[in-house]
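To: structure subgroup
Subject: Chain for Friday's discussion

All,

I'm putting the inputs and outputs inline so they're searchable in the archive.
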Amino acid sequence: MLQAVRLCDLGTVPHLRILMKHASLVLMSLVLAGMAGSASAQTVFVDTASDVTDFGGAQQVADLPGPDGKTSLAEAGLASDNTPGVQTIGFHVPQSEWTFQWLYPGRAVLQPFLGFRVFDTVILDGTTQTAFTGDTNPSGAEVVIWSGAYLVDNVGSSMRGFDSTQIMVSGGSANVVQGNTLAGIEVYDSHGTLVGGSNAGEGNTCGTIKIDRASNCIVVGNTTTRVRVLGWVAGGQTATNNRIGGPSLGERNFITGYGTWSEGCPGGTTVQIFDSAGTIIENNWIGTTPDGLAQGSLASTVGIGLEGENHDTVIRSNRIAGILGHGTGPHCVGWLVGTGISVYGKGSGVRIVGNSIGLDAANQPSLGSVTGIATVNYFEGPVANVEIGGSSAADANEIAGHLGAGISVANTFSGVRIARNSIHDNDGLGIDLITNGFATGVTPNDPLDGDLGGNGLQNFPVLQSATLGAGTLRIVGAMNASPSSNFLVEFFASPVSDASGFGEGQDFLGAVAVTTNLGGDAAMDVTLSAAIPAGWFVSATASDLASNSTSEFSACVPVLDQSVTVYCTAKVNSLGCLPQISSSGTVSMGDASPLVLMVQQVLNEKNGLFFYSKTGPDAAPFLGGILCGAAPLTRTLIQGSGGTPPPVSDCSGSYVLSFDAWFQSGLDPALTLGTPVHGQFYSRDPASSFGAGLSNAVSFVVTP
């Protein structure tokens, strides 16, 4: 019981009055248990499988056994209800009375008429049968109550160590159900119930755990196929402040997947939340086998499904994978349908943070659904204030491996904030805003962003370039959206571009606040601290800070290296000098620091020029030296080297080329932004082989 108090989720301040009442009930149950222990520490042992009630008197514990000399389960329950204090009902059923061994081998099967019911606080301990006859059922517990067990209006009762038993807790509060195997567990209107536990052996293995019109319940440490939290808002019975899982590993539930087929069409929600407030779903593995490496059910089509009316739901730090229903005959052959998280119905306040959606336990995107997260239209909806990700690294979800979109926003939803997530390796768009005509795919920007649809079809940024510097990444772009509005633009990098040309976002790079002018325009020139490889791609999203609506990802731009690299080997000239190339300025064309290429240690008063390749580097024999760029080659204009006037001959000559001026001249129409350049200087050297001198080379990419 003390454990039940420790694990109860205290919720938020608005629910304090309810929680104080709940705490007093727990305390009362502890006092009752203490009184029972101090009075007689009564334990009643069921020692027969028969369903007989033949004892008389007050039908209390003291009146057991009856004339048959044995205590049945029905008698033990009746005696416990009629005797003050808290009794323990244990089990010493001899193996000679074990029936139905063909169905339940190694287990004592009890069949009380119409099920077993207790109405007063009791401890039902099936583990005592294991102690009595040994571990005869290595895969689970040793006692089966075939017709089900019902704890009715109990306060502080516990039930543990039963197998293949339907367990129903109805009414009362602060009850504990743990350590049961192959069970079905339903909690109805019993507040503060603990199902499972964070210590070894306390979790249940079961089919479905249902929390129905109950509040402040905790479901932790279980291995189950499905969990349902159901309220009834219309009847004034919202399921409030329930928690599935928790921050520690011991509190994790393994919820392997639920679904059925109807004429071959799969359908089923693995974690269903209906008419609730303050529900927390945390740190569970949902949809996979317990090892996290395979799909748990081929019929499950929704991992976590919000339905009805829900408020203040937190979905945090779960692994949701393997949610992909496979259709069969006769009507759904070849169908694949599934959504990791479905936000449906009405209500407000959904935080989806820190989850892994579509990735297996090795963090590979091998167990995706069709859609990672989907907001879904409902005739009384939509749900307001949906947040996917957040402002910190811990808030970011990783959404990968899906057959369709990473995130889909239905056309009736607005204010879906999508921030800082890692979205990658999805076959559809990273973020897909659905139009009012239900069109999917890239939605083009429109002037001043006046169109309607999911998130108002918020315009995305338009990126022009992303160039690397010394530990930095400079991103240049612009936005056109609603006039005089404030936006947060987030930047992401990915090793490859989406097939559409519009990005996903594997790695979050940073963000910048942007304000549009009266014409709806805003320019961006942002330098971020970043260490990503050249050749990756950058994309961006924009979130309207007034509405919290986030755009789709922008078109990708490649990451270009802004540095100038010196490479290759110069040819020693006829005077024994080694012409060396260098540079100054930046590779950004037209900025305040023009790129200037120069070479020194060439012969004085000789003509020369710079020539370059746009296809890549090379290292081939050429004019007695090394050709450093691959053909075809482009030549700049001829210039003189200057230096000491004749008749002196020395290595005082040099050549200087402003590459910005060359670029702007238009003399090379194929030289555009993003073009790689690999070039070197040539100089006349009549006394050298082939009459030519060659410098070493530079490599850079032309950027805005």
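Points worth raising on Friday:
The helical segments are 2-7, 16-39, 73-82, 127-133, 659-665.
Residues 16-39 form the longest helix (24 residues).

D.
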